[in-house]
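Pilot study result, target chain (204 residues):
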Amino acid sequence: MKMSTTRLTAKSVILAMFLLALPGFAALAMAQEDQPRPVAYTTAPKLVIAKIRSGEADVFDVRGKVTFTVTAANSDDTIAGTLNYAIPDDARQKISQMTGRPLNTIKSTLTQPGVIANFQKGTGAPLIHLEISPFDSDVNGAKLRFNRIVVDIPGRQGGPTIKKYSNEEVEVLFTVWTRQINNGRQARGVIARLNRAINGEADQ
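Predicted structure:
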């Protein structure tokens, strides 16, 4: 049994070497790794306290976790995205009491598309901070008030191991983008490449 395994391993190595020696095989393998595909980059969940409001008064603190999925990089150095906010059970119960709606009809996640984030002034690696301005949202008839939200993107240096159309490439591009902003330079090339990565579009 041991001899058979050794022979099988040797055959596998020889086959792999033969395939890599074929013209174009290695290039094809690398091309498949960089095949254009959309990247849905989402920030790590972060605790955010929102307020359930009745009229102009805050009546309940909601302690939920927020994520931000990047959907576009804008030429004015802002970022468009979709904000998702996980609503905990105690807040859902409060909303049910306030609105008179059954608990099982109260959503557990608030999804807010079309949110615009700005880079915090001077932000950059190792942790890039994106700021979202205060806004109100409706949750099954209850008003939810969000104050300023900050989400984070890890900074990352580029290198030969970074694959295109990956979360790692998006982090590299954000790192370069903030460096350009902090140096007072335009980042049109970075923004264009980031949008191609987000949308899964091939380089021109």
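One observation from the pilot: Helices lie at 2-21, 25-33, 89-99, 167-182, 188-199. A full batch analysis is planned for the follow-on phase.
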